[in-house]
Each structure stands twice: as structure tokens, then as C-alpha cells.
From TrEMBL:
Protein name, as recorded: Methyltransferase type 11
Organism: Pontibacter amylolyticus
Keywords of the record: Methyltransferase, Signal, Transferase
UniProt keyword Methyltransferase, yes or no: yes
Signal peptide extent: 1-30
Pfam families from the UniProt entry: Methyltransf_31 (PF13847)
All copies of domain Methyltransferase, residue ranges: 93-213
Length: 254
């Protein structure tokens, strides 16, 4: 009894120290996640139109849902973006294999398809409504060499070494897992494969697009060069978008 009386708070103190230690460990884990040490991303309160998830200093934009399909097929899109000139500068050959990543309603997919009659076009999408639209349009146009592929947030779901060139048009800034998707594309490209990125020009205040849906050349290079790509060519002929062509140079990192 005397022994118990001498240390009346020992059990409480032990419990308190255990709680403090566990709390400290949880705080450390939370701090690790906040600093991105676990997965390469950091997190904050979302901005307007953002996800709160940050990669290399850039907040990832919230994805445009399939309800925005009409905007993708707007009558003014060719004039605004000059997609014809983009495709002409992809240096496509009749047997080129192309992957349109984030194909949407197929605005680029079905302009590219006639250029590669002996090749193939993979229209990669994650949203089911767009998948149905792509499949319906393929049947309607008789584009038998177009294959619709269901991707996901971390994989493009294409075979290794299958494609000559991947195209992402105003898509990259919305990728929830840019590192993982770049790694997946890297794997799907042939050894001399290319990745063409079109993104709205953040440097130009006259481009009336929400800030998180635009990117600077510097930011694009920083992110892609960290993931096994090297800028091969960039052009300024598009009215509102960057045209940046990257080549596969090494094993994609993380």
C-alpha cells in the first residue's frame, strides 16, 4: 500500500506520456504527408477551381466533367486553337501509332485518324460518358483503326512500347497523379517516342482561361524533365496554347 501511495500518479503519468508520444507520431506522419515526403505531393486548402493537391509548386486543377462536352466541340474551337496546324506539326506518317490522352469527345482523335491510315489511334479516356461518345463516333465514322481505351487516374492502360507519340491537349494540368501518368506514358512509348503537350498560356493575360487551367513553359518543363522527358521542340504558332514536344530520354522517375 505504501508503494502505491508513493506514486499515486504513476499510471496516469504513463498514460499521459503514451498519449503525447502517439500524438507526436501522428503529427509527424501528418507533417510528412503535408511535405509530400511520402508520395511526392503536398496538400493545402483548395483554391477556387482547384483540388488542394500540389505538385512541384503547382496546384492541380479540378477536372472538367463530361457535362462540358459541348464546350469541347464548340464551333469556334478550330479558330481559337488552330488544331489543323497542330496536327500538321506532329510529323505523322501513315503508319504512326498515336495515343490521344484525355480524348474527350474525340476532337483531335478523329482529325488525326485519317492521317495515319496504316497506323493506329488510341483514344484514352477516364469518364464513361466520353467513352460512350468516342465509341459511337468511331462506329459512325468507320474509323476501325481507332481503339477506345478506358484509362484511370494513375494509368493510361496501354501496352509497353506500343506508341510513337502521345498527345495531351489541355489535359495535363488536371491530372490527379501527374507523376504516375507520366510514368505510364513513358512506359507506353517506343524508345524514340514523343509526348506532345498543349496547354493554355499562363504567361498571356489575354488568354481568358481560369488560372489553374493554364501553365507556364517553365512549369511544364520542370515537371516533365523530372519524369524522364526532355524538351525537343517548342513552337509559338498557336494563338492561346503552348506547343511543347518532348522526347523520352530515360527511365521515368518518381
Amino acid at each position: 500500500m505504501k508503494k502505491q501511495a508513493r506514486f499515486p500518479g504513476s499510471a496516469f503519468l504513463l498514460a499521459l506520456l503514451t498519449t503525447v508520444c502517439l500524438s507526436g507520431c501522428h503529427a509527424c506522419q501528418a507533417q510528412q504527408q503535408e511535405s509530400g515526403t511520402k508520395d511526392g505531393y503536398t496538400y493545402k486548402s483548395p483554391s477556387s477551381g482547384g483540388t488542394g493537391k500540389v505538385y512541384m509548386g503547382r496546384e492541380i486543377a479540378a477536372i472538367m466533367t463530361a457535362t462540358g462536352g459541348n464546350w469541347l466541340d464548340r464551333d469556334t474551337r478550330q479558330e481559337e486553337e488552330n488544331s489543323t496546324r497542330t496536327i500538321a506539326n506532329m510529323n505523322l506518317q501513315p503508319n504512326t501509332v498515336v495515343a490521344d490522352i484525355g480524348a474527350g469527345t474525340g476532337f483531335y482523335t478523329f482529325q488525326i485518324a485519317p492521317k495515319v491510315p496504316e497506323g493506329k489511334v488510341y483514344a484514352v479516356e477516364v469518364q464513361d460518358r466520353f467513352i460512350k461518345t468516342l465509341e459511337s463516333r468511331r462506329e459512325k465514322e468507320g474509323a476501325t483503326h481507332v481503339t477506345v481505351v478506358k484509362g484511370d487516374s494513375m494509368q493510361v492502360n496501354l501496352s509497353a512500347g506500343a506508341i510513337d507519340i502521345a498527345l495531351m491537349v489541355d489535359v495535363y494540368h488536371e491530372l490527379a497523379y501527374p507523376m504516375e501518368i507520366l510514368r505510364s506514358i513513358h512506359q507506353a512509348l517506343k524508345p524514340d517516342g514523343k509526348l506532345l503537350l498543349l496547354e493554355y498560356k499562363a504567361e498571356d493575360p489575354d488568354v481568358r482561361i481560369r488560372a489553374l487551367h493554364k501553365m507556364t513553359k517553365e512549369q511544364i518543363r520542370k515537371e516533365l524533365e523530372a519524369n524522364g522527358f526532355r524538351l525537343q521542340r517548342q513552337e509559338d504558332f498557336l494563338p492561346i496554347q503552348h506547343f511543347m514536344l518532348f522526347e523520352k530520354v530515360e527511365e521515368a522517375g518518381g
